[in-house]
Write a structure and sequence with these properties.
19 helices, 6-stranded mixed beta sheet, alpha/beta, 3 domains
């Protein structure tokens, strides 16, 4: 097998520029220092959260090159744990990217490598053939609907909070599994790290948990703090009982090893060669947003378009335009993938592009979350919260034939006797059970300043 690994290393070196090779040597030195020297590198274990996209694939390739380079110099090298996530919004293409990269780098049968995945709060050995569990799909769907109704579809809360909390939980579970790791590799630029920490501190204040250990104190403290936030989210927002924290207590106290400054972005030709080697592909549902870790911008844009068309009574295309313009002007908003922005900014094709986006996003919502366009529109009106404050408006605009049934709907939402067909209609229109709808009826809106 040594010959096979040498071939992998050779293929990687052939696709790196001189500057990138120099940066690789700095990465090796950084890892050796973190381990305490060459004599201790053999027992040193690092973890990378891998999303399958270009940036994390490049980081994975560099770490693999560093691992094999150290092995070529001496009797041992560091152990590499790679953890990815299984969730409903990830396309088959992105999942395939993860498997193809692992195979290209010959990681499956290397005892120095662990390939893991997190699904519904549990750690499993990575298996590309394993579908997303029903529990994970149901949890994501319920979270999107409940938070969406409580915030009238404000996309930062509907998508971003769960994304960040699950990212932290991925790190917590992955870094504590089976004895833990010595270091967590950080490829996120400092500017984004600061934004993430600021979000965490704000969430702690809002949850009344500001007295907890600071999120930046250590990786273990950060992941445990965010785990408490996640449980608070499930309990306070979704109204679910707290599920005990899963994941073993780490035997090691991991540290962060930041390598973002060592990842020199490849030029176009080099990037093509590297992506070809790793087998990276793209699809319409990803629009260049190729990570398994994070929300899909296609659905975010779709909600803005639907809000414009059904709530603000203008056009779907106008809502998309407003979203694109604001995302480009506000640095706090997540950047729109360039391929998606380019498609939407073609003035002579604007309406056609918006309709294509609408079709693709609707298809994704059904496939990933079993949510129809009508159920997303219902979410935007938030018709059930605060004792059905917007229910009459929602019926008048979107379901005028059901306006006479409003008293029966109110009785059903209050838990009183109501016709069976009314309950069925409410469940089908919202995508939620009567139990959840009655819970929403008793809840107040959970709004922050508009994120549009």
């Amino acid at each position: 097998m040594n010959y096979v690994y040498q071939q992998v290393l050779q293929r990687l070196f052939e696709r790196l520029s001189q500057a990138q090779r120099a940066s690789l040597q700095l990465l090796i030195q950084r890892l050796l220092v973190a381990a305490g020297g060459m004599e201790r590198i053999d027992g040193f274990k690092v973890m990378l959260a891998y999303g399958g996209g270009h940036t994390s694939a490049y980081a994975l390739a560099c770490l693999r090159a560093a691992q094999l380079s150290i092995a070529a110099r001496g009797p041992g090298t560091f152990r590499l744990r790679v953890v990815t996530t299984h969730h409903a919004g990830v396309s088959e293409t992105v999942q395939g990217n993860i498997e193809r990269a692992f195979s290209a780098l010959m990681m499956h049968d290397d005892p120095r490598v662990e390939l893991l995945m997190v699904d519904d709060g549990e750690v499993h050995l990575f298996d590309a053939r394993e579908p997303v569990s029903a529990g994970q799909k149901a949890a994501e769907r319920l979270d999107m609907l409940i938070v969406g109704h409580l915030t009238a579809g404000q996309t930062r809360q509907t998508f971003l909070n769960r994304c960040y909390l699950e990212l932290a939980d991925l790190h917590r579970l992955g870094s504590s599994y089976d004895g833990g790791v010595d270091a967590v590799i950080n490829v996120v630029p400092q500017r984004k790290r600061k934004r993430y920490l600021a979000w965490g501190r704000r969430m702690l204040r809002e949850a009344g948990l500001a007295g907890m250990q600071p999120v930046e104190a250590s990786p273990a403290a950060m992941f445990q703090t965010f785990a408490v936030l996640r449980h608070n989210h499930l309990t306070q927002v979704l109204g679910e009982p707290i599920r005990p924290l899963t994941g073993e207590l780490p035997h090691r106290a991991p540290r962060f090893v930041a390598i973002d400054d060592l990842l020199i972005e490849p030029e176009r030709g080099q990037r093509d060669l590297l992506e070809t080697l790793l087998g990276l592909r793209y699809d319409n549902h990803a629009f260049g947003f190729d990570e398994a870790i994070g929300g899909n911008p296609l659905l975010v844009a779709h909600l803005h378009g639907l809000r414009a068309a059904f709530v603000e009574l203008c056009s779907y295309a106008e809502g998309i335009d407003a979203y694109v313009n604001q995302a480009q002007q506000l640095p706090r908003m997540r950047p729109i993938p360039s391929s998606l922005a380019a498609m939407l900014q073609c003035e002579h094709q604007r309406d056609n592009a918006a309709e294509r986006l609408r079709y693709l996003a609707s298809e994704l919502a059904v496939q990933a979350f079993d949510l129809s366009e009508g159920q997303l529109v219902c979410l935007l009106y938030a018709p059930f919260i605060e004792q059905g404050r917007n229910l009459e408006l929602f019926l008048r605009r979107c379901h005028p034939n059901q306006r006479d049934s409003l008293p029966g709907m109110i009785r059903a939402l209050q838990g009183r006797d109501a016709a069976h067909w009314i309950k069925e209609w409410l469940e089908a229109t919202s995508g939620l059970s009567m139990e959840n709808l009655q819970m929403l009826y008793r809840r107040k809106a959970k709004r922050r300043p508009a994120d549009r």
